[in-house]
Amino acid sequence: MSRSQFIGMLDAYARTDRTVQLWLRDDDAIEPTEALSRLLGLSEGWDAPLTIAAIPAHATAALAGLLRQLPLISVAVHGWDHLNHAPTSEKKQELGLHRGEAVVLSRLAEGLERIRALFGDRAVPLLVPPWNRIAPALVGHLTSLGYEALSVFGPERKEAPLRLVNTHVDIIDWKGTRGGRAMDILYAEAAARLEASETLKTSLGILTHHLVHDEAAWDFLDDFFDLTANHPACRWVAVRELMNIP
After folding, report:
1. Could you give the residue ranges of the DSSP H alpha helices within the chain?
2. What are the recorded Gene Ontology BP terms (predicted)?
3. What are phi and psi of 52, to 5 degrees?
């Protein structure tokens, strides 16, 4: 039912000349793997741009060599080393204030510099906080470090001090199987995102983590690409377009 709901929303968009700007963000890449190759193959096969959120401290030259050859790929900055600095009483967070503001901002500046050095013109000045969490006090400093946008999870807040390019559907069941979530639930969330929007262009960000994908996760991606590839309301876009970068 939820899949047909989503198709119904897409059809409604098409009838009113509205567009769904689809984008895919995959987190935690540090090196080439079989799972990453499978994801890159989907991106190439469906001609769908893909944003890789790479961990600067651990990203390898081999990953850079692979991704720099692929025109559909953008590489964002996934924190610095993806280590938790919050106490056990709090949710995991690398980009909190637990180490002090100056330390965290220094690491974020270093992260952007390293991603640019490794990935060249594939790099984008987009910060993807590990665990989708960042202390609000840090956000206002990001532009001074060279970042042009921030990507977390959930609806974009209008009062943010810089552009937000968020994801809205996370395909992984983190609190349960730690594999792919049920397809009906994912389509229901996608449909809800479209239903809540009142703009002519609505972004819909899909969040993946290739290192933990099971067949349920891959099955959803196969189905989602197949459903959206030729629908008149859908456009797969590079994150640069959502960031307004030429």
Report:
1. 2-15, 34-45, 61-67, 101-119, 136-139, 142-145, 183-196, 215-228, 239-242
2. carbohydrate metabolic process
3. -100, 120
Interval 36-53: pLDDT, tens? 999 999 999 999 999 999
Q: What is the Cα–Cα distance from 224 to 177, expressed in whole angstroms?
A: 21
| Domains of the chain as residue ranges with CATH | 2-242 (3.20.20.370)
Give the integer Cα–Cα distance in Å for 235 and 203. 10
Q: Which residues have a Cβ under 8 Å from the Cβ of 133 and sit 6 or more positions away? A: 91, 92, 93, 94, 95, 96, 152
Q: What is the per-residue pLDDT across 112-139, written as a single tens digit (0 to 9) for each?
A: 999 999 999 999 999 999 999 999 999 9
Q: Decide: helix, strand or coil at residue 65.
A: helix
- Do residues 4 and 186 make contact, with C-beta atoms less than 8 angstroms apart? no
